[in-house]
Amino acid sequence: EITAEDWVVLELSSFMLEGLDEDHWSPHIAALTNLSDNHLDRHGTIDAYAVAKQSIFNHQHAQDVAIFPPHLNHYFTSFAQYKPLHLPKATIPLLVPGMHNQINAHLALLVCEQAGIDRQQAIGALREFPGLPHRLQLVVEHESVRYFNDSKCTTPSAAKLAMDCFEPGSIHIILGGFDKQADLTDLAVHASDVCRVIYTIGQTGPAIAHAARSGKAQVVECETLEKAVAATTTRIHRNDVVLLSPACASWDQFTNYEARGNAFVSLVLNYSGEGFPAPLK
Fold first, then answer.
1. Residues in a beta bridge with 174
2. DSSP string, 47-113
3. Its pTM surpasses 0.70
4. Closest to 137 in 3D by CA, of 5, 262, 274
5. CA nearest 261: which of 276, 271, 246, 273?
6. What domains can you pick out in the chain, each with its CATH number?
7. 277 secondary structure, DSSP code
8. What is the pLDDT of residue 36?
């Protein structure tokens, strides 16, 4: 049972945030990491999407704190005390890869400082944090090939960040899924520049494949995740990375992103013969 002394940490979607205005409530410390085209099938425009995100700040009081990057100031104008989230000047040794995770870690530090937690204690915890399932989760390393489950990645910008964590030319990426009406052209072009092979699945697979064919990467239209994982087995090289980072929601073929990620893990472990997930560390 939650008491007045407990801290509650919530991760809220734009769908959930729309309900905060009805409840006239905002959290004491409200943090927002980014804003990019997403859920336009529901919100219609990026401006309407930003309005839904603004709900997290709307009902803060004078003692409350809002944290978000300064380049989003023109979207978010109603909040209490403001603490800007800047690009980190120095990195923290993390177990999870990518500059976006460095930004996430610095956001966590800002939140901890506002909550009165010792900075060095917070840094120590961040250094040992192994990451979460479906978020650039290392599934297994087999024959010098690493397999990453990033099924939580449901936006083009998140998929581009995931690709940028690895050596260009070594990436086999699985892209596609439910069509949320986002523009996937830049994603496809970026993937064709940095990946060895692109495997497309789901409703958006044909559009991604079409946009990616003018680049350097080989494009393989697979329709399903099972076919995509099977297709990687004849194309991988030592020291390559196989990355499920779909850039789309899962609802065309799976109940949710967890089901999609679990299916990927099972397929990879079945292929590799490991039979169990590798420790996240």
1. 199, 244
2. HHHHHHHHTTTTT--TT-EEEE-GGGTTT----SEEEE-PPPSS----SS-SHHHHHHHHHHHHHHH
3. yes
4. 262
5. 246
6. 14-128 (3.40.1190.10), 137-272 (3.90.190.20)
7. P
8. 80
